[in-house]
Design a protein that fits this description.
By secondary structure, this protein is α/β, with parallel strands linked by helices. The chain contains 22 helices and 40 strands.
Length: 895
Amino acid sequence: MSLKTHDVTTDVTPDVSPEGAVDVDGTEERLARLTADLTVEEKVSLVVGAGMWTTTPIERIGLRAVAMSDGPVGVRGTGGETDGATPGAQTSAMLPAPSALAATWDLDLAARAGALFASEARRHGVHVVLAPQINLQRTPVGGRHFECYSEDPHLTAEIAVRLVRASQENGVGMSVKHYVANDSETERTRYLARLDERTLREVYLPPFERVVHEAQAWSVMGAYSGVDDGVTAAPVLEHRPLLTGILKDEWGFDGVVVSDWVATKSIRGAVEGGLDLQMPGPDGPWGDGLLDAVRSGEVAEAELDDKVLRLLRLAHRVGALDLGAVPGTARVTGLQPDDAPSSASSARDGLTGQEASAAFLRELVARSIVVLKNSPVAPRAGASGGVARLVPLDPAALAAPGRPLTVALLGPAATAPFLQGGGSSFVVPDRVSTPEEEIRAGLPEGTRLLVHDGARSRSNPPALDVSGRCSDPLTGAPGLRVELLDARGEVLDSRTAPTWDGWLQDVRADAVAVRVRADVDLDEPGTHELGIGTVGVHTVTADGQVVSTGDVVVDEDVVLSSGHNHPVARTVTVEVAEPRTAHLDATLQVVHAVGYASFVRGELVHRLPGASAEELLDDAVAAAAAADVAIVVIGTTEEVESEGYDRPDLDLPGNQNRLVELVLQANPRTVVVVNAGAPVLLPWLDDAPSVLWAWLGGQEAGTGLADALLGVTEPSGRLPWTLPARAEDVPVLHAIPREGVVEYTEGLDVGYRAWERTGTTPAAPFGHGLGWSEWEYLGATVVGPDDGPDVLLDVTVRNAGTRASREVVQVYVEPDAASAHDASEAPYRPVRWLGGFAVVDAAPGETTTARVRVPARAFQTWDVPAQQWVTAAGGHVLRAGRSIRDLRLRATLPD
C-alpha cells in the first residue's frame, strides 16, 4: 500500500492593492502622462468602440487598436462574425460547453484551457476574449445555462480563476461576464434582478470578486439587465454602487468595464455609473453624444480620465501600447494576426498547433463526461465474460465466441450531433469528430456497427442543398438568383449565388430587401417539404403555394434575442410522382441593426421523402435487438439551448425518450449517452443500466466519447449542477419577469442548496459521478490553518476497484447548530454548501490523501448593518464525500 498527498491550494492574496495598480516600475506614471496629453476628442474616441470588435487606435502615442472576440467555447476572431454563422469564417478550436469544463472539477485542466484561449487568441489576432461567463446556473431552463460553469459560486470561481489567470499570463486578456445577476435570457435587455444584499454578496458577487482578487482580471463585461438590491435599482451599466463602489473602489479592480454589445442606453448615467468602454461603435449613445456632453459641461473631461487610463493600461497589458524603454517594465508583444500561436504555458502544455489543441480537447471531453449510472448486467448468451458493468465496453463479455461483435449505435445525436450552444459563442470548428466514425475506429476489427437515427430531435427540416439541387431561373447556372432591392423595389444588384448558408452579410445601406429565387430539382418520388426560416418582413412561395408572410420590421432586438439564429421554419408539401422542378421565390427584409452589420436571414430547408417517425423507431429497435450492445445518443439541439431565450421546459425534444424506452425493452445491454449542456428530464433513468452525461462536446465530441466508452480515458466528471427527476421539484423552474422584475425569492438557497433545504430527491445530486471505480473514505483530519485564515483538511481515500481511477474529493460546510451560542439570533444560512475540493488519482488498491483548502470566506456571512464580512457565530462541521448526498466523513471545527 502506498500513500500520496495531493495539495490543492487557493491563493487568495491579491497581487494588486485595493487602492489600485501598484506602480513598481513607472508604468502607471507613464500611463497617467499619456492620458493627460490626449485631447478631449481623443479621450472620447477611446471610450467608444471603433467598430464591432476593436477600439480606436491613436498612432501618435503608439496605441494600436485592441481587438476583442466572443469566446466561451473558442476564439472566433474579428472577421465580421456578428451573427453566429458567417460564410467563410475562420475556423477555431472548439471547446466543449463551459459546463463540461466545470464538470471535470480539475483546476489543471482549467489552466490548460486558459492557455489554449491565449494560443487561439494569438492565432486570430485577438487581444481580449469575451469570456468566461461566470453567472450562476440559477434555473435549469436558462438559455445560456450551458455557457456557465455551475450552480455553485465556489466551483464557478475556482475554475474561472485558473482559466483567466493562465490566459492573462500569456498576454491575452479575458473579459469576465456578465456582471452581475444576469442569470436568464427572457427579456434580458430590460429586466431588473431583485435580490437582497446578503444574497448578492454571498452568492452572485463572489465569482467576480475572486477573479478580480486572485486572477487580476483585466476586463469585466457589464450586463444588459439591471439590479435592484433594495437600495439602488438601475441598469447594471448605470449602477454606481455595483460598478464603482464595489468593483472598482472596494475590490481594487483596475481594468476596463466594457458594455455588453449595444447595452449602453445613456450618456450621463453610464459615465457616472462606472462604464469605461461602450461597445460596439462608433455610433450609439456615447458615439453620438458623449463629445457634445463634455463640451456642454454635462460630463466633465476629468470623468473620462480614469476610463482612458484604464483603457491604456489594458492596451499596454495586451501589447497594443508600447510605453518605450522603461527600466523593469514588463510587457508582451503585440498580438497581430500573423503572430505565432504560442506562449510560455501553451508551449509547456503542448498547445502549439491544431493537432496539440485537438489532443487536449479530446482529453477534456472524456474527463468531463459524467457516469450517472453503471449497473452490472448479464452478458450476451454464450459470451466468454461474466456479469459486468457495461462501461467501459468489454467485447469479450459482450460477443459470443466465434461471432463478431455487433454494436447498434442509435439516436439523432449519434448521426447529427449538437456540438455547441447557440448565440454569440458560436465558432466554426477546426475539425469535427463524430461518434460514429470514432466508435467505429475504436472497436475491434470485424465489428458490425449498425447506425440508425431512430428519432427526430429537430423541428426544422435539413438545409436545402443549394449547390446540388437548385439552379438560377434566369441563367440556369447552379445556385440561386439573389437580387438586392431598394425602398421602391428597384434592383440594386443581381447575381447568381452558387451556395447559400442561410445568411447574406454586410448588405449595403440602401437595400431594404433581398429577393431569392431558384428552380429546385425534386427527383425522388413521394412527399417533399420545402420552406424557409426567416425574420422580419417577408413573402415566400414554393411551387405556387404561399409558405409564409410577415409584416413586422425587425431591428437589433432580433439579434439581442437571438431570434435570427434559429428561426422556426415554415414549409409546404410538394407531391412528386416523376422528377420535376419546383420554383422557390422569397423576398426577405434586410435587417439594419444598430451596432451590427446589416444582414438578411433566410434558412432554406428541404425534407426528402423518407421513413416516418414510427418507421425510424422500428428500424432502431430492430437493430438494438440484433446487437450485442446498444449505444443510444440523445440530447438537445441548437433549437433548444441558445443565448437569447430560455427553454420552455426540461423535456428532450422530439420522440427521443420513446426511442430510449423501446431500445431498453429490446436490449438490456444498453448504454444511454445524453448530449446536452443543461439538465433534461430522463423518465427512463431507473430502467437503464448505464447512463453517461456527455455535455455539448465541441469538435472532439466523438473522440472524447469513444475514449470514455472504450476504456481509453476514464470519464471522471462530476455534476456541477443538480439533475432533477421531476419538473415540479425544481426550485426555480422559470425566470420570467413579472412587470419587468425577476425576483430572487430563493435567496441564498440557489441550486443544490434549495434541494438540501427541502430534502427532495433529485435524479442525480450536485457533485455526483461514478467514474470507473469504487472508493473508500478512510479518514479526515484538520491540519490547518497553516499560513492564513483558511482551513486545511486532509481526506484519506482508497481506490477499492480494479482499475486506476480519479476521485473528486468534495468537502461541504455546515453550521454546527449544537455549538451555536444562540441559534435564534444567528443569521440564516444554507443547510450546507461547497467549501473545497481536490482531484486525486490512484492505482487499484492504492491509498492517497487529498489536502483540501476551505477558504475563510466559507465560514463568513455579510453583515448588512456593519457592511463587512464576519465569521458566523458557533462552530462549523466539515463533511467529506463523493457528492452533496454521499457524505462519508466529518470533522468539527470549534467556535
